[in-house]
Amino acid sequence: SELRTSRRYAQKSQDKLHKVSYKKRKEILTSLAKSYLSDQQIVEAVIKIKGTPIKDIKKGVAKINEWVLNLDRFIEVVLGSVDNFEDGQKISIDGKEIARKVYKPGGVSAIILSRNMEAYEQFYVLAQGILSCNHLIVRASTGDVATYDFFRALDRANAKDFAQLIYFSSEKGFDLVRSLLEQTKQSIVFASD
User: Fold this and answer.
1) What is the pLDDT of residue 127?
2) Distances from the Cα of 109 to the Cα of 69, 121, 128, angstroms
3) How confident is the model at residue 193, as a pLDDT?
4) Model pTM?
5) pLDDT on residue 96
6) What CA–CA distances, in Å, run from 118 to 3, 74, 123, 147?
7) Above 70 in pLDDT, residue 38?
8) Handedness of CA 72, 147, 42, 44 (dihedral sign)
9) Contact 184, 108 (CB under 8 A)
């Protein structure tokens, strides 16, 4: 029942997301990067739960901020130019456009995160989902404060339509994960727990 409700919300959100401009997505990611792991209590919890040294957390946050700062360059490498992200990439022969490669969101995506992922790796995976304009249904590992912090930052950025965080007990976990994967258009699974 909880999964059915999540799926309905995801589909409603997905219908809105394809209209969100690259500029708006970049603003959201910039806001997320600024506030992710900025709360000292969250950082201390990440250290305690994941065992990540503070210097590694700071390095990871620096990587996140550098990636977001250079997002236009990332898009250029992937798609040829930022304009191609919005309008598609022209395919020409002898100066005549014969086709256009267009980026379209694929639909609701499931992301299953594992306990042993570093916080900056989680951010990067979830940020890619937001960049793609696919609504994300994210199942985090129990007690994963880094993912929780990402969703707090998402709320602060007024970007709730992009993703939702779900938890379920380990007794039901395997069957619910299987059901989630079957009901979404695409999925990314990082497994360890």
Assistant:
1) 92
2) 25, 18, 11
3) 47
4) 0.84
5) 93
6) 26, 21, 9, 10
7) yes
8) negative
9) yes
